[in-house]
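quick one: NAP bound model?
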Amino acid sequence: MAGDSPYTVKWGILATGGIAETFTKDLLTNPAIRDVSDVKHELVAVASSSSADRAADFVKRVDGLSSVKAYGSYAELVADPNVDIVYVATPHSHHFQNTMLCLEAGKNVLCEKAFTVTVAQAKKLVDKAKEKNLFLMEAVWTRCFPLSIKVRELISSGAIGTVYRTFGKLVFSITDTLACPAADLSFGKANPDGSLDFPDTNRMVSLDLAGGALLDLGIYALTWVFQSLYHVQPEASKEAPKVVSAINKYKTGADEQTSIICQFPQHATMGIATTGMRVATDPDGQKTAGAAIRIQGSEGEIQVLHPAYRPTAYRVIKKDSDGKVEVVDCPIPTDPQRNNWGHGMFWEADECARCLRDGKKQSAFMPWEESVVIMDVMDQVLQQGSVTYPALITTDVYDAKSPLNTGNQ
Ligand SMILES: NC(=O)c1ccc[n+]([C@@H]2O[C@H](COP(=O)([O-])OP(=O)(O)OC[C@H]3O[C@@H](n4cnc5c(N)ncnc54)[C@H](OP(=O)(O)O)[C@@H]3O)[C@@H](O)[C@H]2O)c1
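yep, here:
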């Protein structure tokens, strides 16, 4: 497409919380900061289930144009003919109903992780996208990082021989700001007795909001297990893992510490994903604790440095390296014209734009089938740990008037 003008995508933002703001600021950075010239993004509408004023405040915070529509309901957003694609940024509890609302209205969707609360819901979303011939992607932004693409290429090219095992961990303590993937972590602090101090209504621990370490954080540890052991499997021999897991529960009933073994016996590989809210992957905030992800092959290993959800460096340790380690830095660019915004979420937005431009309904970085298999793993883990969420958020029956769509929940 060299020489052509960039393909422009018009975005609608559904919900006005922490990650919606981070994502939208990324959207509004100049693509040139990341050497992108084939696509660009426009913010055209924002919706808050709380009020139109809240949406308008959001538009101000992200320095949006005066033409950006600020709606006081999700229904109005999905009815806006000017919106090409909706970014769903509500808590996971809401993803199924909100994404279905968008798809039913004929909108393409980028939906935050975790995709849904159950695998049945994930399958229904994929079926609906197929039926409506729409683009749909789970927003596992890490997969679109140039670093992740490079690591997948290294694995596929045999740079560390045959890969046999991956360790992935995403553990954070609520005092560890570096490892905080959510804006609301400042709500809590660790008590001296070791208990967690989130309000029980906080989305990290509330069952009503599908809280718990697994769906919020563990998904990143799992995504590295999947990127390195499943994504790279040949299509003809794709093998979903056997799953063994253990969960320690928080007082609300949500999982606070969770460990998962994914076994792929036909490929002789195994992945171990751990997550939790009590101790940190990076306890001193100085990245001295070693790799967050270790991908181990017959000829060496690739280590992805903390944080696993937003990595900026990896290293390759070859069997015959004689103590020499190759460290590769992959910095995330920022936009000096836009208050130095730039978090790394623009790469997934670019991926959506290219898919829309090319008529693709799903991204090869995060294919539908893989989102469904990962949701299946998480579903099994939650069942093995007896974590039960309320029927309102686990139903796979779409209801446009669900309180999850109308803002009464
Ligand atoms: N990719 C990442 O790095 C990353 C980081 C953090 C979070 N996330 C994901 O993004 C999603 C949102 O996380 P967040 O940290 O942005 O959450 P948040 O700050 O609590 O924002 C969630 C937004 O959802 C809307 N909402 C509707 N009903 C709600 C309810 N009953 N309770 C709370 N909020 C409700 C609200 O917006 P309105 O009032 O405007 O409708 C609220 O501001 C989660 O699925 C999370 O896993 C991803």
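The radius of gyration is 20 Å.
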